[in-house]
Amino acid sequence: MSAAAIGFAGHRTGVGSSTLALYALYLCVPIALIIIGSFGSVWSNTLLPSGFTMRWYGQLWHDPTFQRAFLTSLWVCISTVIGCVVLGVPLAYVVATTRNPVFGLVARVLYLMPVAAPAVVLGFGYILAFSSESLPFLGAGWLTVAAHIVICLPYMLSTLVADLRLQGIEALEQAAESLGAPFHRRLIDIVLPGLVHSIAAGAILVATLSIGEFQLTNLIAGFLHRTYPIVLLQAFYGATGFACAATVILLLLALLAACAGSWVDRGTTGTAGTTP
Amino acid sequence: MTIAIRNASFTYAGSGNGGVRDISLTINEGELLAVIGPSGCGKSTALKLIAGFLLPQTGQILINGQDATAIAPRQRNLGVVFQNYSLFPHMTVAGNIAYPLKLRGMSRTEIGERVGQVLVAVSLSAMAERFPRALSGGQQQRVALARALVFRPQALLLDEPLSALDANLRLEMRDEIIRLQRLYGIATLHITHDQEEAMSMADRVAVMHEGRILQVGPPRDVYDKPANHIVAAFVGQSNLMDAVVLDATRVRTALGDLEVADSVFAPGQAATVVIRPERIQPCDSAVSGNTFFGVITIDRFLGAVRRFDFKTSGGQTLKVETGRSGPCNAIHIPPDAVQVIAAGAPKTYKIADTGAHSV
């Protein structure tokens, strides 16, 4: 390599490192400040808080509103993940294997619609549809789950459809069929085991999206079924330390979902992916 | 066990290419029948019709004389090896091979025995617990063959099974497929676009073009007696040219008048002349008739042989294949090397190359 080329490569690496460092700073500083703030006793008009306290976490622990919201977020998240898997797997299979181009296009447009439409539009739609006398379900917990499924399903589907196409599922199924496998055996023996990794990856995505979802939930969740991000908004009107502690818990919840997904994926890799 | 297609037609919706038109073909017991033809000629469609992945719009699929047209692929009991092998990535080699046996409800002991036997047959006993992605292309190919053979199918269908392998491995796997096919004595349909592969492996070869079967016969017959100019152009190297029959031993071509061993065509009839490059003899002086002077325009060294383009003083170019080195200013075409077939050659004389249409 010539000196000029080395110089250029070095320059390029330098630019890359600086950009990465700036991005990390931009991403990490607010999170670091929130974590620091959650342990600070007083924080007003200074860069950093003063004093150390666990008071905010204690208050949070004993606050029934936050307790309820935490549990609501957990069950909404788990139900959303289950719903997305149950609906997503068969839908993805149909989309990936259909030979009808019109059906494929319609299905793709339909399942990508929730990504394209702003959450606030969906929210108003839900309000209009479910606050009528014939469908008086606005505020019900299951409606929040249904709304989360609508928002998260496209992400699960995209992951699954891409994986099915990458695997060449049609060819694998033809092979299984030629070996004597009826439809249900092909589904159980070939399609589902091949999808384990992408189901896990999709579940992580869905869980993190569901836990952090605010816009739509804020419009449709009832008082008894408010999720954690909704009650977190209230914390911002109180003491800064308390708001920081409540935010840290949400971060931990999202982190927990991501770790759980990774752990499931690693578990499946251990059984299906190792080569002696 | 025989497999047959009877007057089957199939066209893909919205496409004029790749289907088959009124084809009939029989794979006899223990026979390896190769179907060759260029891309889009319908050879893979023919295999899919036999396998049951496609339903013919007209005609029948017969398995051992019985109409199997409406039978589902899983009930046809045919072993299929796909171009990309289609091994199940989450199953081990043994798991892949055992799968069709599990589907048939065999006992664990019986499955173990059968898988062991077939692994020995494909020399992969040491790889039983590996996953497909840890195998080379050739090993994956063997697993696919083992999986297609282990349940003792009625016939074996191979859909371009060697096309994903590199050249050396392809040669090795040709012998391996022949060995296994003979070992199991199973009727086999081998789809390929590689005419050399087909000629070297098959008991009989079927040449397809634009959805039709043009000729079926032993490789030697198809090579030596092509049914028409398309077969002559696709199978092996050939020099093709328009001709008019003068009498039983002479034809007139752009090259000049050629002596032929025997022509069944009437005088004055238009015909096509096929001359294989390896039958043309380089010489230094006029041998007798059918000698042409000229110069070498392109010389290719191919290892064991040399192939050159020879431009005659009349301006025609012939492809010549010889083991002889050194310069060459004349060529001789023995009369028995000139095949006279039904007319249909290109209007202007040109050389047909392997795997390509010259029409």
Explain what this protein looks like in three dimensions.
The complex is a heterodimer of chains A (276) and B (359). Chain A has 276 residues and is mainly alpha-helical. Chain A has 11 helices and no strands. The longest helix of chain A is centred in the N-terminal third of the chain and has 37 residues, at 3-39. The two termini of chain A are 40 Å apart. The model of chain A is unreliable at 268-276 (pLDDT under 50). In chain B, α3 packs across α4 (137-149). Helix content of chain B is 23%, strand content 33%. With 359 residues, chain B is an alpha+beta fold. In chain B, a hairpin with a 4-residue loop joins β17 (306-312) and β18. In chain B, the strands form 4 sheets. Chain B has a 6-stranded mixed beta sheet with strand order 6-7-8-3-9-10, with helices on both faces. Chain B folds into 2 domains: 3-223, P-loop containing nucleotide triphosphate hydrolases (Rossmann fold, 3-Layer(aba) Sandwich); 237-280 and 288-350, no CATH class. The interface between A and B is medium-sized, with 24 and 30 residues.
